[in-house]
Design brief:
- This protein has 124 residues and is of the alpha+beta class.
- It has a domain of 80 residues: hypothetical protein PF0899 fold (2-Layer Sandwich), CATH 3.30.2320.50.
- It is 26% helix and 32% strand.
- The protein is built from 2 helices and 6 strands, in the order αβαβββββ.
- The strands form 2 sheets. The chain has a 3-stranded mixed beta sheet with strand order 2-1-6. A 3-stranded antiparallel beta sheet has the order 4-3-5, with no helix packed on it.
- α1 crosses α2.
- It is elongated and about 55 Å long.
- Bound molecules: zinc ion.
- The site of zinc ion (ZN) has 8 residues, from loops.
């Protein structure tokens, strides 16, 4: 349940922030989620619905998710390649994302593992 723990963390941060601003409730949460986080959008939204049911501060909250692309950097030629995880290229944990320039498999992930709250809309 990767998503549930993550949703709970986000929810806690949003509630704390809303309380600090004396808000009545959180209306919208805008998230930026990296391609390599293994988080499934629909499932994450379901988790939020479950959390929101027991949390007045989050009643009716809408979650907006933007995906940020994954980027790997080649250790041979330093070229940066944008990578998309898909059914053709699933994320298994032992992926090798080859450099698009020199085809070297020696790449390291430099972007796409982050998940951030970009914005919050609250009702006062
Ligand atoms: Zn390369």
């Amino acid at each position: 349940m990767h998503e549930f723990g993550f949703a709970q963390q986000i929810a806690d941060i949003c509630i704390a922030s809303a309380e600090k601003n004396n808000a009545k409730r959180v209306k919208d949460i805008y998230l930026e989620i990296g391609e390599f986080t293994l988080i499934i959008d629909d499932y994450l939204k379901q988790c939020f619905e479950m959390i929101a049911q027991g949390t007045p501060m989050l009643a009716g909250v809408k979650v907006h998710i933007t995906r940020t692309p994954g980027v790997v950097k080649c250790q041979d030629c330093a070229h940066e390649t944008q990578v998309h995880v898909s059914t053709d290229n699933p994320l298994t944990g032992i992926n090798i994302f080859a450099c698009e320039q020199c085809k070297s498999p020696k790449t390291v992930i430099i972007k796409g593992k982050e998940a951030n709250i970009k914005n919050l809309k609250i009702e006062m």
